[in-house]
Amino acid sequence: MADETQEKIAASIGVPVARRHIFLCCDQTKPKCCDKERGLAAWEFLKGRLKALGLSEQGGILRTKANCLRICEGGPIAVVYPEGAWYGQCDPPLLERIIQEHLIHGRPVQDALIAQRPL
After folding, report:
1. What are the residues whose beta carbons fall under 8 Å from the beta carbon of 71, sequence distance 6 or more?
2. Among residues 33, 50, 30, which one has the least CA distance to residue 92?
3. What's the pLDDT score for residue 27?
4. Contact at 8 Å (CB) between 50 and 56?
5. Is 1 exposed, middle or buried, given 0-12, 13-18 or 19+ CB atoms closer than 10 A?
6. How do residues 45-72 score in pLDDT, each as one tens digit?
7. CA 95 to CA 91: how far, in whole Å?
8. What is the model's pTM?
9. 3-state secondary structure string, 27-63?
């Protein structure tokens, strides 16, 4: 069982109200899908937009920086759960579409999907 401090942290980052969780491959130890600067720029955009739109913390969207999502081609790579929607080329213009269409409205961005497998 988690301790009280961990439970408070989980609550503060919005785990109890989460509707979706986006993982973005960036800041890799050995960049393969795209160069490190491009991945980090995508991460900063994602983090900033979610905050600006009130979607982080208690806004229902969790975000995680992943070291590698194992599709080492055409990155930055992202995956959104619970839909299990995998996306490539996740630079800011596509991330904006993913935020607006998928994270907010629940519709995966069909023309950008690599694969989809809900868990």
Report:
1. 25, 33, 77, 86, 88, 114
2. 50
3. 87
4. yes
5. exposed
6. 999 999 999 999 999 999 999 999 999 9
7. 6
8. 0.94
9. CCCCCCCCCHHHHHHHHHHHHHHHHHCCCCHHHCEEE
